[in-house]
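Hey, can you fold this one?
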Amino acid sequence: MPLCCRLCFSWDSSGGGGTTPIKADIVGSVSSSLPDSFTHNPFSGLNMVTVNLRATTVAAVLTVLADQTTATCPSRFSWENNVLTKAAINSTNNAELFDFGPVEGTPASSKIIGGIPRPRCKTFPGDPLWPSNSVWNLLNLTLGGALIKTVPLAAPCYSDWPQYDAAQCEYVKTNWNRPQLHVEDPTSAMFPLWQGQTCMPLDHPSQIYDNCTLGGYASYSVAVTKVSQIQLALNFARATNIRLVVKNTGHDFADKSMGAGSLSIWTHKLKDIQYIPDYTCNGHSGPALKLGSGVETEEVYQAAEAHNVTVVGGECRTVGMAGGYIAGGGHSPMSSLVGMGADQVLSLDVVLPNGRFVTASQSSYPDLFWALRGGGGSTYGVVTSVTVKAYPQIPVSTLGFVFGTSPNVTADTFWAGVEAYTTYFDTFTAVGAYGYWLIVNIGPGQFFFSMNPLWGGNMTLAQFQPLIQPFLDDLANLGISIDPVWNEYPSLYQAHSGTFPPENVGGADNRAASRLFPKDNFINPTKRNETMAAVRYAVEAGGILIGYNIRAAPNSAVNQTNSVNPAWRETTGFFILAAAWPADASPAVIQAQSNILTNDWMARWRQVSPGAGSYLSEGDINEPNWQQSFYGSHYPRLLQLKKKYDPTGLFYAHTAVGSEDWEVEGQLPGLPTQNGRLCKKP
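Sure. Predicted structure:
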């Protein structure tokens, strides 16, 4: 059984030190025993506001959020019709905590609740302005019990935590590297290095502290099941000046869902999938799928399989489709055929930073529609659902093989084999093929290559094998022998399930960077030689290379006028490079290796691909000139829209649009964790 989080709130009826616990489980079943009212502790900072919890007030908050049916295309999920209204807010005695922000494009207020001037830094636990327990309890009641006080996943391993449980600790330790463990937790993410490693399982190789603290984890999360809860949480965070983060699955290499002292919007429970056989709207006609924002890639593939269609999705099974995947652009085994994940979007439903719920499409909020498809997550709002184009079911053929250095294959021959593959990058992707592969340094002058797989979308084996055979002949002519494993599948779902290796996460002994190499880097012999020399240098020095032969195919059947990094439109080689260090490495060792990755290995890659870019969701957390690398020429417009829709900076994430105006305090150079106070730069 998965680890079950429990939470315990306390409120103070006198404003002093005596507390009575109100216990709630993960879905927030709250005790009905409440005082008539209480005033905030004067040291809580929100002493200008008297919070009323009389039963009639609480009932008003919970019952006025009736379904608001709105005609949209397609129709909204039932929980998307449960929206917050101005009338509902005005009917409470605590409207100042939950009121909407100004209409987008109008000046933002320079003050927070109680008329307090907005501080330079976000309110942090222990600050005078941090909400008292009574206020958190009010928020929980207003949310219908959806608020979760954070208990780190590994807390059962520590005897000073109430959740201490040896059996649960063993479960967490055993499953720590499985992504699903972190996906199903409201705050945990998959790369603990940027959390600060403040609560690793006991005896984990990367455990650096003997105790367990929250570190970069959010202080509280909202397990949302309806739109009104997102609206209430956003309005509350804006009014109280609390840092806000959004967690879908936690896959982003930079842990964008982390943030010390934050309130997190957890979208995991929004799992609805609706198949629309004939979506006719905004100039599109054909099958589509409407997806709740908690839906993961494998779930989308399964739904498409059930309806005999194909949908563009990620390579990793647990990636959240409507989260950072589409927001960052979204590469896919289908990209060489039909383009990026973001290209397939027909409409999105989103809660804006001001708390209002809108639909973004070609005809509604078109500038937001442009920005949400590639301009990065945690920036313009919280997407609740997305509608994507579906294609007919297609066959997929695959090839897997390995080769390496040996007594008969020198290092030079090995790299000649790798370069031979790159000469086919344009040929393969031009007809819809895709490659996912790995190169590892296994010793001085020794290397290993694994193809996992080479993928022929919409190809039978009879079509796929002749396409690939010239490359295999080149390997044979070099003296490189392989044992090819060919397969043909009737659908994308079956091919994906049968070929891609399982994910492994949770380690803090490495970090990665990436580069989108233009196709000319592999077509032009001089550029190809320079590119492969830079790649070989990094791998020989200890880098681990994960490579994709991929393109963002042009597709007239969808709207590709979006904010996807223009570098994707030019690439046929997306390379991820990881630097590793001992699991028990000191911060100084990690800083040194991190510096080598960014300023030596990747500097050479940037030098041979000037003006190209990197993939936002799988990029270097220390990427120089990240605005250009991650967003390209779109950045000025994206920043303008950020200021329009989020003038107070409610949403922040590392390397997200507008993040250059903020900093997390107390960070070591090259190790920008989210374990610190978020402040506006002076």
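The chain is about 25% helix and 20% strand. Let me know if you want another pass with a different chain boundary.
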